[in-house]
Design goal:
The protein is 47% helix and 14% strand. By secondary structure, it is an alpha/beta fold. The strands form 2 sheets. The protein has a 7-stranded parallel sheet, with helices on both faces. The protein has a 6-stranded parallel sheet with strand order 10-9-8-11-12-13, with helices on both faces. Strand 8, helix 7 and strand 9 form a beta-alpha-beta unit. Helix 2 crosses helix 3, helix 4 packs antiparallel against helix 5 and helix 5 crosses helix 16.
């Protein structure tokens, strides 16, 4: 029997060293490879020096064009059994073409995080208004979820939120970050061997940039008065001039740029300082911190959906002054610090161990393939959306294609 063909259509070529989204998509690719599937990855984006070498995993790479009928011909020849869309924007751009050329292919949407939730929170902070989830991004993302056969949700909190929108649970699958091995403490640096704070992130990602500004203008001003010997070290991908100009040695605020190894760099420090103001999904930096025994000082929105009722691996507080006081206590109190480490171990082992998810996920995909028509009949609202979207998105795309000629 020929291997099943799985096609990933990427917004970008994944960069695991730059973002959690890159890590996530590579983890999904590896799940299908381990299942013996023939995996293809296609993107209209350009590769960067930091793009993951998918070919080293025997993934077949394809460069495709956006708003171009050459994609249809290529897709027909490939004839994949499963198509995975990397974020809802990719489903909007290519979904109608997949539906037209390969109607029997199982369509999976990897949401990465719920963009509409992140967008709503950003707008709420920017305009100092109440949270409004009923925006155009919500309509677009939920429509993509309905049009797909299955959507992968990375956070339990986001699963709960989608239930409030009355989305059939059969369309959703909770699949968090997948950690290969049970956590090992053997090579962790001790409390005494560590010092200082670290923040790390991709600065093309707006929540990270906003957090960095909050650290600079508010948190660190208070924190360094209470811990004058400590420094704050800023790492991350795509640290443009607006990031690097925040460097101030006198204030012990150091901007270093991209870390060669996120986990290796985090493990040198005593606390990951990440008071996120908005965002969604699960935070890759928090997984990295727990895997290296680095307690985390964060906010409610930062830690959302990551511990699922277990004790947090550090402190959570939204009030600036209380946050600073609790962070100081965590930094100085070895007993509390070690307890935070233990909490992190428990979170990783109980909630993110890969072996708890891989078999059930692949079984779900296989079952859906077998009963695809029945599944789609039960999601008739999705079929209606596909019908209308095929018309509207199709003709917009064809118009752009003609314009480009």
């Amino acid at each position: 029997m020929a291997a099943r063909k799985v096609l990933f259509i990427g917004l970008v070529w994944p960069e695991p060293t730059s973002s959690a989204a890159g890590t996530r998509i590579v983890q999904l690719v590896q799940l299908f490879l381990a299942n013996g599937d023939e995996v293809h990855f296609a993107s209209a984006a350009s590769k960067s020096d930091f793009s993951f070498d998918l070919e080293s995993l025997d993934v077949i790479n394809h460069e495709i064009k956006l708003n171009d009928s050459s994609f249809n011909d290529w897709l027909t020849d490939l004839n994949p059994n499963v198509v995975v869309f990397d974020r809802f924007m990719i489903e909007e751009q290519y979904g109608w073409r997949v539906q037209q050329e390969c109607p029997n292919a199982l369509r999976i949407l990897d949401t990465e995080d719920l963009h509409f939730l992140r967008h709503a929170r950003q707008q709420s902070i920017k305009h100092r208004t109440e949270l409004d989830l009923y925006n155009d991004v919500t309509k677009r993302e939920l429509a993509a979820i309905f049009r797909c056969d299955l959507s992968l949700i990375i956070s339990q909190a986001e699963m709960d939120l989608l239930q409030e929108f009355n989305i059939n649970s059969q369309l959703l699958y909770y699949l968090p970050f997948l950690e290969e091995k049970i956590i090992s403490t053997e090579h962790w640096k001790t409390f005494e061997e560590r010092k200082d704070f670290i923040f790390i992130g991709n600065y093309l990602h707006e929540p990270n940039w906003q957090t960095l500004q909050y650290l600079k203008t508010s948190v660190w001003l208070l924190l360094r008065k209470k811990l004058p010997e400590a420094s704050l070290h800023i790492y991350g991908a795509y640290a443009t001039e607006k990031v690097t100009q925040l460097q101030n040695a006198r204030e012990k605020f150091f901007v270093h740029g991209r870390a060669e190894s996120a986990r290796g760099t985090i493990s040198e420090h005593r606390i990951l300082l990440a008071p996120l103001l908005f965002g969604a999904g699960a935070k890759g930096k928090f997984i990295d911190a727990m895997q290296t025994g680095t307690p985390i000082a964060s906010t409610t929105v930062g830690a959302e959906g990551m511990a699922n009722g277990l004790d947090w691996a550090g402190i959570i507080n939204d009030d600036l002054e209380t946050f600073v006081d609790e962070t100081v206590e965590l930094y100085q109190n070895e007993e509390k610090w070690k307890q935070a480490q233990q909490n992190g171990i428990k979170i990783i082992n109980e909630l993110y161990a890969k072996n708890k998810f891989e078999t059930s996920f692949l079984t779900r995909v296989a079952d859906m393939e077998e009963n695809l028509n029945e599944h789609r009949q039960q999601n008739f609202f999705g079929e209606i959306l596909k019908h209308h979207t095929l018309q509207s998105t199709k003709y917009m795309s064809l118009w752009i294609e003609e314009k480009n000629k």
